[in-house]
Amino acid sequence: MEIKKVAVLGAGAMGHGIAQVAAMSGMEVNLRDISDEFLQAGIEKIKWSLDKMAQKGKISQEEADAALRRVKKFVSLADAVKDVDFVIEAIPEKLDLKKETFREVDKNAPKHAILASNTSALPISEMASATTRPERVVGMHFFNPPQLMRLVEVIKGDKTSDEVVRITAELAKKWGKEPVIVNKDVPGFIANRCTITGSNLVHWMVYNGEYTVEEVDAAAIHKAGMPMGMFGLLDYTGIDIAYSVSKFMQEREPGFKMSPLLEEKVKKGELGVKTGKGFYEYPDKKWVPLDLPLEKAEKFDPFIPTYVGINVAAELIRNGVATRDDIDKALKLGFNLPMGFLEIADSLGIDVVVQKLKEISAKYGPFYKPSPLLEEMVKKGELGQKTKKGFYTYE
Ligand code: 3HC
Questions:
Q1: 58-109: per-residue pLDDT in tens?
Q2: Looking at the structure, do residues 210 and 286 belong to the same domain, yes or no?
Q3: Burial class of residue 168 in the structure, from the number of CB atoms within 10 Å of its CB (0-12 exposed, 13-18 middle, 19+ buried)
Q4: What residues act catalytically?
């Protein structure tokens, strides 16, 4: 089956970017949103981004103009999906709304069409259950900004066929992306699941007054190579997005207890760059890289969220959700990190990670107890680089 024409539902932060990458690959794109105003705002953003790429010589101005012409605007959902091979939704992160949309899309899209969700964490299988074609429903999760970030997580729902997973991964490649496969529909999939669990612990630490936002970000930027810091990234992506992922994790993940930090921000309407204020201020509602002094980086150990993330990653391997290579690829390409968590685990030492997790769980609860996989590795003496075998082997 060849994908020639796609529909993207939602022209917001993610939807416009996904529509753009599809159009840049030469495909016809039907972009749908609920009002002309939202559609126009999405088109303006696509135009800005294409022009920026042309200015930088990444594409020619002709290619930019042609890509823009390939994106058609639709308010009617039925019209947007009626003649496409692939539909991807990037609408708000509300499961009921997503299910309702999938139901409508299923009624109106051609029988052969694959239906995908760009959800950050919500269950693909539940969206699929609203359709008559659950084997053709799949997760296709992009990272913000979709035009620049190379990762796409392809998520298998309970009933998704292997062929649909393969076609979706191929499509991601045609769009210039690097797919990883998520074999089981777990909340947060790979990249968000590994990072949000550790971030939530840091949110508790800030909430409890152990560290300031600036101390965390200075250490994350200067010592761990995170391009935007932890709180800067929340502002950039939207605190409401992280809040909805965390809330969902709390509902579905036994032991995950969300810190009140994000909820407080959401209640105040301080959602980050898009509202002009989040953890930092953005008078022009535009992202400005953080300029934090090196001295501020001294107090916080930026590997605290990594130890927790390594533990989550180990459980993903133990439970057959994803491979070692896909986990590290997801973390590096999803957040532009210099190393994957499992590579970091090997360089820190698995015994050190287990010890740190024991300390963290003694203070913050059994949810952070080391994975049996990590304990087993320590027993076998597979401690990482120092023993030449850990998650990877070394010569
Ligand atoms: N299209 C085209 N160009 C763009 C762009 C876009 N959408 N967005 C930014 N640019 C441009 C900038 O304007 C800038 O142009 P300039 O040089 O003329 O000013 C250029 O790209 C490069 O930007 P910068 O020099 O400011 O910064 P970087 O080189 O570091 O690259 C970045 C920007 C790739 C976004 C980098 O900051 C980064 O990797 N940040 C981390 C992003 C991240 O972690 N994303 C994941 C979020 S979580 C997620 O999405 C999951 C979801 O489920 C919530």
A1: 999 999 999 999 999 999 999 999 999 999 999 999 999 999 999 999 999 9
A2: yes
A3: buried
A4: 120, 141, 153, 192
